[in-house]
Amino acid sequence: MIKSTCLLGLLMSSVLLLSACEKNNNSQDEPKPVPVEPGEDIDPETPTTYQKDEEGFYILEENYFSYSEDSGDTKTKNEVVIPKNAEEVTKYNQLRMYIGDKQVPVYNVKTNMSQSWTPDAANRQNNSYATFGLKGKVTVKLQASFAFLNQIAIRPSNKQVPYEVDNARRVLSFTISDIGQYTIEMRSGRTLHLFVEDPTIMDNSNSSVIYFEPGVHKHSNDSRINSGNTINLYSNQKVYLAPGAFVYGKFIANSASNIQIYGPGYVDGSIFERDANKGSVLVPIEFNYCSNITLKDFACVDPAGWCFNMYFCNGVTIDNVKVISSRSNGDGISIQSCQNVNVTNSFLRTWDDSLVVKNYPQWSDRNNEGTTRSIHFSNCLIWTDLAQSMEIGYECVGQVMDDITFDNIVVLHNYHKAIFSIHNGNNANITNVKFTNITVEDASTGKGDGNKYLVDFKNVFSSTWSTNHKTTSLGSVNGVTVSNVLVKDGIYNPVILVEGTLENRSDYPREGHYVSNVTFNDFYLYDKVITKTNCNYQTNQYTNNINFTSSGNPITGATYTPKDVNGYGNNIIFK
Description:
- By secondary structure, the protein is mainly beta.
- It has one helix and 45 strands.
- The strands form five sheets. It has a 20-stranded mixed β-sheet that branches. Strands 14-17-20-23-26-29-32-34-36-38-43 form an eleven-stranded parallel β-sheet, with no helix packed on it. Strands 1, 4, 5, 7, 10, 11 and 45 form a seven-stranded mixed β-sheet that branches.
- It is globular and about 80 Å long.
- The two termini are about 40 Å apart.
């Protein structure tokens, strides 16, 4: 924010005077200009004579966003699908988005940049998200009602999205050449979360599915949503969420199999209360004792608690889902006592753990402890505003937690606690864990009430979490590989912590519980490959065989292969 001075006030007055005197050929048809207020977000280095409309956007030239086909361009036309605008859903009032002469709906979503947990998560801010389908490449124009001040980042950075800023018009232009998820990050925490989809998933209105058409679906207008704001699913059902569909409620299935929820619509939790003091919660996606489950392509925004809750399930595919959470216990994808789970190509911005694996007992029979096996996360983007990015634990009730992998992951931001974490607070023997091919763009851990851990591997009893579901003896952590990790930026000297513990509780044998056979291989932190002696490595006597190694090969982190769009021209087919 620029402080007012006499000189600045004079400059602003001059700009206003010029704007008021500027002749506009369409002045009778255009909205009345909004005057510049003292202390407004302005860029003093880019004076402008554009007037503002009633929403604070500059009134640009009449044909600025026009589109006409180039008849001389013989290359393949780009295909764009823009979802139908949901009139009842709150729009984000600081951005407008255009592809050619078509406006793409930009919706409002709450995010939370506070790094201190509160039960009601009161300190949230408005941000935005949008979806369109694309085959080929396309230039997107993003008009803002604020000055960019050259504070732009488009992530993930390995996609190298080209962009230009027209500061005089407050327009950011960037070219998207592949499907996937992107964050367009601007000053003061403003972010557009952009979900670019394969056009082939944008239409599935056949009669064999439970079809949620574009528009708003609530208990008040959709009989499929019961009075508890719940859609109950049963074996062999398919649900399709159309582009522009907003479902306000939760999907739940118990002891069912062969269920699919898919399509690029939205599950929106914004109308539901979440307050940990009151116990108010509404988890939007919940599957218990289920098998052969497929969840793909849709987005969950502002869930009132956890987002994806898988409990005692076997055979789960989660692909191309998107999560933006900002309220207490806003975990992204939580896998509890499950087997054979694959999570791929997904985006998570969360106000609690992003990807998390736990082991629980059955609620109906606490003696029946969980088994976790073959849980694989790959090709995901993570933004963790609070807690951990990739977490195993603390609740680990049940001896088997085996074959858990995180591969080809990009952590866009992590502000609070560890990015790589294993917390065994119960009796599990956690084995065969791999964190491989990871890029961390911003390791700003330790803000608020967090800690400055980059890695946090512990085998330890927790008075908060270890008795939450069942009190047990302690187990072990044995066999962890952290390999090909590229940490680009973050805090100075973050902690690499590996610790076991001595059992001190009188009900259990007084013996050590170890973290063993951990290898950090090709782990590049800012400007060096880490070793035990050149990083902030902390440990204790209850560890065995902790190794830091280097293969000598290039350290790439997560990799991305650009899509070949050379055969596409500049013409667009809007479908």
